[in-house]
């Protein structure tokens, strides 16, 4: 394999960290592991502006960089391009930060006390499409957030009639093609409706939409419906 092949296959990473020394150390670590750091920022605003254009495989985001939250950067990036995986890097385990990390659609939550090898391994797993959270813990957090959203007055306001119908069909487990056939739409149009519904409800994937519908039905008809 020549160097050009290696460059093509290398994992592309973007770094956001408010401390230059930490950022430099992380960059050196990842580059030693054969990854390519395509960009780095000290502030959240700069990262949010640059990452969508650079399209790294993984963005490693400090939870609390200067000028804003890395978690919000993750939320914005994932709303624009879900192919970019995000890892949140925190000083220590904080339950509130962890919960926000899950809800932002990140692939994992890392503490800075982890060894360099563990951080590099997490980046590789995220680049491969893995989610590093415990599935039961992730479901618990998402379920609580969905239930809280549904309990607020006007929780369903903001969806158009067609979007509401798309949500119902997502709850039935339909694919984009099946939704398109059911609603007599082009498949691309159905996909756009699905994306709009997920964005308006603050959800990140179709299984969350199905859970949202199921919980709404239980709330409407009672647990034995």
From TrEMBL:
Record has Transcription as a keyword: yes
Limits of the HTH luxR-type domain: 152-217
Single GO biological process annotation from the record: phosphorelay signal transduction system
Keyword Transcription set for record: yes
Record's protein name: LuxR family transcriptional regulator
Source organism: Sinomonas atrocyanea
Pfam families noted in UniProt: GerE, Response_reg
Domain Response regulatory: residue ranges: 12-127
Keywords: DNA-binding, Phosphoprotein, Transcription, Transcription regulation
GO MF: DNA binding
Matching CDD domains: LuxR_C_like, REC_NarL-like
Transmembrane residue ranges: none
Modified residues (4-aspartylphosphate): 62
InterPro entries, A to Z: CheY-like_superfamily, NreC/VraR/RcsB-like_REC, Sig_transdc_resp-reg_receiver, Tscrpt_reg_LuxR_C, WalR-like
């Amino acid at each position: 394999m020549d160097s050009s092949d290696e460059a093509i296959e290398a994992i592309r990473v973007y770094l956001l960290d408010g401390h230059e020394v930490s950022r430099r150390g992380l960059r050196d670590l990842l580059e030693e592991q054969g990854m390519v750091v395509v960009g780095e920022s000290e502030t959240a605003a700069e990262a949010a502006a640059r990452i969508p254009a650079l399209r790294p495989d993984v963005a490693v985001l400090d939870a609390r960089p200067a000028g804003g939250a890395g978690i919000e950067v993750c939320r914005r990036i994932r709303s624009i391009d879900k192919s970019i995986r995000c890892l949140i890097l925190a000083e220590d385990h904080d339950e509130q930060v962890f919960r926000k990390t899950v809800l932002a659609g990140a692939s994992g939550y890392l503490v800075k006390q982890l060894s360099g090898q563990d951080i590099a391994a997490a980046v590789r797993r995220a680049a491969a499409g893995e989610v590093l959270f415990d599935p039961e813990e992730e479901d618990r957090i998402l379920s609580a957030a969905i239930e809280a959203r549904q309990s607020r007055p006007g929780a369903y306001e903001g969806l158009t009639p067609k979007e509401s119908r798309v949500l119902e069909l997502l709850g039935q487990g339909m694919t984009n093609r099946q939704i398109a056939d059911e609603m007599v739409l082009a498949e691309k149009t159905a996909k756009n409706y699905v994306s709009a519904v997920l964005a308006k409800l603050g959800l990140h994937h179709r299984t969350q939409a199905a859970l949202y519908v199921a919980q709404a039905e239980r709330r409407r008809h009672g647990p034995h419906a």
